[in-house]
Amino acid sequence: METAVCGRTQRSPHFFLECSLKTEKTCLTHYCSTLCLQGQFTPAQLWQYFDDLRETNFESYLAIVHARFSTNTYPSWERAHPNRYLAHNGEINTLRGNINLMRAREGVMRSSIFGDKLPELYPVVEPNMSDSGSLDNVLEFLVTVGGRSLPEAVMTMVPEAWQNDTQMNPEKRLFYKWAGCAMEPWDGPALLTFTDGRYIGAILDRNGLRPARYYQTENGDVIMASEVGVIDVPNSKIVVKQRLKPGRMLLIDTQEKLFVKDEQIKMDIASKSQYAEWLKELFTIGDLQRAKNVAPLTTFKRRAVLLEGRSEEEVEGRAKVLEDRRLAMFAYTTETINMLLLPMVKTKKEALGSMGNDEPLACLSLYQPLIFSYFKQLFAQVTNPPIDPFREKIVMSLACPVGPEANILEPTAEQCRRLWLEQPIVSIPDCEIIKETSYKGWKTKVIDCVFPVAEGRQGLLKRLDHIRKEACEAARKGYTVIVLSDRKAGPKFVPVR
Question: For the segment 192-224, what is each residue's pLDDT rounded down to a tens digit?
């Protein structure tokens, strides 16, 4: 609908609000299963605007009510909750990566149902959406186009913390590992409520940093809210009173009239496909080493630092790190090493300070700041506590799959034909193996990310354009991995930064 409206009117889709109305048909009647009512109202004004809510014949067996007070975005009609499938309390802090990767997948997605018309549904994530709206777009796409059930789609997008949970059922662990190969998690902190007319439920992301409590009454009503006491219910009528735990799902199947427990939902989904067989396609650095008959790295010889006027033999074994001229080339200062890096090496903790940071933005700096200085958290800096893989290893893992992605609309073993890394930092010998591998038909294109010092700024711009062209050409030629390398940086070449 939005694509058609924009094409005919040449206006932004945000000039229009599309009502969400899903219908079901039975042998006796044609009825509405979900109706989404949105607006820029206070909660009390909703009843005055929508006459349906005051109609005595208007009945529903489920309802999601969300009063959203805009904090990170300017309020507007299209950002009002609930969305087409969900309402959301919290933030999606992985949002930019989620959107970019979903956009990249559009090039490999195929559908036996939609065929050549599938691109008409792109982009999957509508432009300028909020984090909640973007999440809703992808959830709707997986359900309506990908054919997944609503609980399975939610479980794929918002996984439990499974990597370090030794008590988790093996079948469920296999599902989550497959899901990790197929799609990256949409991480919060987030509490999601969702419905498609048949299912209604809620899930808390794996960090569990948003409140969610629910009651079940003796007459069969289930009430879930982010706070206790939203609806007054006499204690004598409450059968179950619990909170939603991190990574857990609350689900009601209105068609089967079941209040389904978290473990039962997920085991039913995890047992549907041959995930154990599919995951045999997944491989590790160890597999690449064995294929090349290379022994795992046990010792590491430090390279001699580059000192002006000295040979490698003179400095071997006794060079001082701060005398390495490459530090200046990559914009590492004495303060960076002494105040940030060394404390991390010694204590395994990020260096903390309390005097504030009055440095200019990296893009406005007169110097050459580290590339990391260009990245800032976009919002929610106060509500999200620091999380790192050492202190929060129960809910956090650095493991990730790399390599070409497959068609997410059809779950198969193809999604697992990727390289599984236990952490994103790869040693130099392991990187060499990746560059030389031909395992399972993989091949790697190495692109040099350096330019001649003599060419100055124009050389940087020219090299950036060449890198883009080389990467696109490598993709067309079937390369599975692209390595951007600045190893040739030295007296005559400087790295692209």
Answer: 999 999 999 999 998 888 889 999 999 989 999
> Which tokens hold the place of 187?
């991480």
- Contact residues for 289 (Cβ-Cβ < 8 A; gap 6+): 295, 296, 433
- For 258-317, the pLDDT digits (tens) are 999 899 999 999 998 899 999 999 999 999 999 887 766 555 555 554 444 455 555 554
Rounded to the nearest angstrom, the gap between the alpha carbon of residue 40 and the centroid of all alpha carbons in its chain is 29
Q: How far apart are CA 444 and CA 475, in angstroms?
A: 10
What letter represents residue 150's amino acid? L
466 versus 55: the higher-pLDDT residue is 466
Name all domains of the chain by residue range, CATH numbers in brackets: 2-273 (3.60.20.10)
> What are the φ/ψ torsions at residue 80 (nearest 5 degrees)?
-70, 145
Q: pTM of the predicted model, to two decimals?
A: 0.84
Task: Name the token pair of 108.
Answer: 């490999």
Considering only CA atoms, which of 57, 65, 60 is closest in space to residue 39? 65
With b for 16 or more beta-carbon neighbours within 10 A and e for fewer, the 197-224 pattern comes to bbbbbbbbbbbbbbebbbbbbeeeebeb
pLDDT number for residue 307 = 46
Distance, CA of 113 to CA of 120 (rounded, Å):
13
Taking alpha carbons only, the member of 423, 471, 354 closest to residue 163 is 423
Q: Which of 29, 91, 103, 102 is nearest to 59 (CA)?
A: 29
